[in-house]
């Protein structure tokens, strides 16, 4: 999962099939916390040298470098397709097109602006914890979306293995990991913020998958990124 979802250089040759990818989503929260720990460690040093707005910008750029913009790409493709006002078949074609449209650019820029503004507003007491937990809150969205969805395409696609082989067992296991990590914050305000993420993920996948009667890999990425932004917005409201 770390090899697939991040650019972290793990030099191991692993033999994995489609089923392994789907079942491996149980570890999505752990992948999130690994990314968050790197971002948190980076931020800890930078906060002594730079202002919080500058650190927030660097955090987001580092996040993109670590993930390779994988889920942001899915976000862009999703918005290009869903906001094209075309038929289901044409929407799926647009989502698969490697070219970037206006809706994709607007969606990615909007999400990054929200994330930046929210990080700038986070109470300094909570800043490092929010940065560390933000990727986990996003990736619980990918897990939940895969577990409660059906695959929208007739042909094979990147998201098929995740959606077809991530079931109730993986969902329950991933949620247990998510809850345990959340409880380790030992802060009831953080618990409130983190409790919203699984709910918002479930609602997001229902909305985004309605138009094409299912989900794709791009939609899983979109849920991850939007869920991350919702986590930051809730954090701004609660962590005061």
UniProtKB/TrEMBL annotation:
InterPro entries found in the cross-reference section: CobS (IPR003805)
Membrane-related topology note: Multi-pass membrane protein
Pfam families named in the record: CobS
Keyword Lipoprotein: no
Pathway terms, separated by semicolons: Cofactor biosynthesis; adenosylcobalamin biosynthesis; adenosylcobalamin from cob(II)yrinate a,c-diamide: step 7/7
CC cofactor: Mg(2+)
Function: Joins adenosylcobinamide-GDP and alpha-ribazole to generate adenosylcobalamin (Ado-cobalamin). Also synthesizes adenosylcobalamin 5'-phosphate from adenosylcobinamide-GDP and alpha-ribazole 5'-phosphate.
Protein family according to the UniProt entry: Belongs to the CobS family.
UniProt cross-references to HAMAP family, sorted A to Z: CobS (MF_00719)
Name the UniProt record assigns to this protein: Adenosylcobinamide-GDP ribazoletransferase
Organism field: Ruminiclostridium herbifermentans
Gene, per the UniProt record: cobS
């Amino acid at each position: 999962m770390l090899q697939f979802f991040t650019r972290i250089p793990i030099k191991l040759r692993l033999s994995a099939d489609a089923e392994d990818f789907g079942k491996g989503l149980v570890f999505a929260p752990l992948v999130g916390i690994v990314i968050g720990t790197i971002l948190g460690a980076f931020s800890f040093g930078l906060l002594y040298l730079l202002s919080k707005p500058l650190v927030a910008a660097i955090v987001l750029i580092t996040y993109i470098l670590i993930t390779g913009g994988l889920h942001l790409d899915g976000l862009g493709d999703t918005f290009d397709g869903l906001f094209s006002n075309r038929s289901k078949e044409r929407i799926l074609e647009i989502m698969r097109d490697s070219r970037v449209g206006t809706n994709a650019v607007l969606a990615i820029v909007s999400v990054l602006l929200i994330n930046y503004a929210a990080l700038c507003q986070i109470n300094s007491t909570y800043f490092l914890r929010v940065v560390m937990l933000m990727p986990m809150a996003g990736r619980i969205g990918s897990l939940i979306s895969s577990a409660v969805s059906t695959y929208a395409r007739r042909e094979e696609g990147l998201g098929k293995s995740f959606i077809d082989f991530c079931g109730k067992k993986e969902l329950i296991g991933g949620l247990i990991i998510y809850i345990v990590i959340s409880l380790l914050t030992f802060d009831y305000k953080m618990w409130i913020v983190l409790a919203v993420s699984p709910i918002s993920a479930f609602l997001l996948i229902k909305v985004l998958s309605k138009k094409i009667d299912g989900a794709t890999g791009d939609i899983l990425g979109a849920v991850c990124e939007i869920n991350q932004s919702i986590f930051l917005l809730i954090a701004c409201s609660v962590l005061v």
